[in-house]
Amino acid sequence: MSQIEKLTTEKGKSMLLYEGFIYTVERTTTTKLILRCHNRDCKARCHTNVYMDAFVPQPTAHCHAPQPDRVPAIKLKEEIKTRAATTEEQSSIILHSALRNYPLNAAGQLPKNEALMLMIRRQRTAEAVDANGRLPDKLRKTYRDEDFILHEDNKLIIFTTQSNLSILKQNKHWFADGTFKVCPDDYYQLFTLHAMMTNAIIPLVYGLLIGKSSEDYNLFFEKVLEQDNFEPESIMTDFETGTIKSVREMLPNVLHKGCLFHFSQAVWRQVQSKGLTTKYNEDEYFRLNVKKLIALAFVPLDKVTTGFDLICDQFDDDADDLLEYFEKTWIGEKKEEVLVERNLNLIINYGMFMIVSSLLYLVPTIPWKAGTMHSQLVSQSIIQTS
Fold first, then answer.
1. For 5-66, CATH number?
2. Which UniProt keywords apply (predicted)?
């Protein structure tokens, strides 16, 4: 006689296996559980006692054949989730070990490796805070047993070590960037501070921020800067208004560099929003002129306005909105022959183009490396996102 086998769903709810059929809990009473067939098109039901080890009475008939090939995949998911929650094994080791004994006849029911890896990582995200709202002990130390929490409250958490801060102090050129893809629900973004080591950009300080205002960035920089007498010569950021304002306030004597990658992204988003995507793809002259706008970053500062005017003459009238955006945002509007600053953006009289281009000769692959680091955090994150 077949035995009742208890399993759990991906969401941690009870599941029952009997004679090749899978049942999930539909509702419970004080004396029994009522389960239905896992196949939503089947009306079969069964009742068990509260321990799910005996039927009261036997299950009703199904409208389909048993599905025993689905069982190994369910058991594999349960196995990797259990190992993820109870061991410190690497995700890849857990997955490869579980797959080693997986039956070939059930291969068609097996999810993709990427989905299984994500399941393992998510299982390791439910790190409970203690009674005082502090992060668990396992997140407070590095594998080298260094303290990893620099600051912790409901507005900001900063992760770094004294070794990292020492490296940061030795480097005169800093790089900062944020990502919104890897962040727990109570925070808005992960903001990282990097330094250059042997032609590579290394993340040294990680901050979980509740927003992207200048006050949020100010608090981050304040907590970092008070740790030592840092003397950076330059810092590279994107063109977020909050970041720009914060750097001016917290690092007033530091050369603020913009990032060509983010600059190019901003221009491309405007091409899209102005309905010029098709024209960009099909019109090689328009495409070249857009690239010329971006290339103004390489023009000497006192020649930028002249270069911009020359490029404008090469555009058709349908690009007027794009050129108006570019002038207002990046060049600055002329008012009585004087360039004025607009909306706190880095424009000509603040040296935006010189800021962008000065970085390029120093570290031409910075944007790619920062983006790669964030992509790796997304794929390997142990922080659950909504």
1. 2.20.25.240
2. Membrane, Metal-binding, Transmembrane, Transmembrane helix, Zinc, Zinc-finger
- Which residues in the chain are classed under CATH 2.20.25.240? 5-66
Distances (CA, A) of 267 to 151, 314, 339, 356: 36, 17, 21, 14
Cis, bond preceding 300 (omega within 30 deg of 0): no
Q: What is the pLDDT of residue 129?
A: 62
From CA 330, how far away is CA 310, in angstroms rounded?
16
CATH fold of the domain at 137-256 = Nucleotidyltransferase; domain 5 (3.30.420)
Residue type, 195: A
pLDDT for res 347: 38
- Dist. CA 76–CA 185, nearest whole Å: 29
Helices 71-86 and 91-100 meet at what angle, rounded to 10?
A: 150
Instruction: Express each pLDDT in 182-216 by its tens digit.
Output: 777 678 899 999 998 877 889 999 999 988 899 99
Quick check: 1 pLDDT over 80?
no
Cα 26 vs. chain centroid, distance in angstroms?
Answer: 36
92 band by pLDDT with thresholds 50, 70 and 90: confident
- Tell me how far apart the alpha carbons of residues 86 and 84 are, in angstroms, rounded to a whole number: 6
CA distances from 90 to 83, 94, 119, 183, 341 (A): 10, 6, 13, 21, 51
The DSSP result for 223-272, as a single string, is: HHHTTS----SEEEE---HHHHHHHHHHSTTSEEEE-HHHHHHHHHHHHH
- Dist. CA 15–CA 5, nearest whole Å: 9
CATH 3.30.420 placement within the chain: 137-256
Confidence band, pLDDT 50/70/90 cuts, at residue 132: low
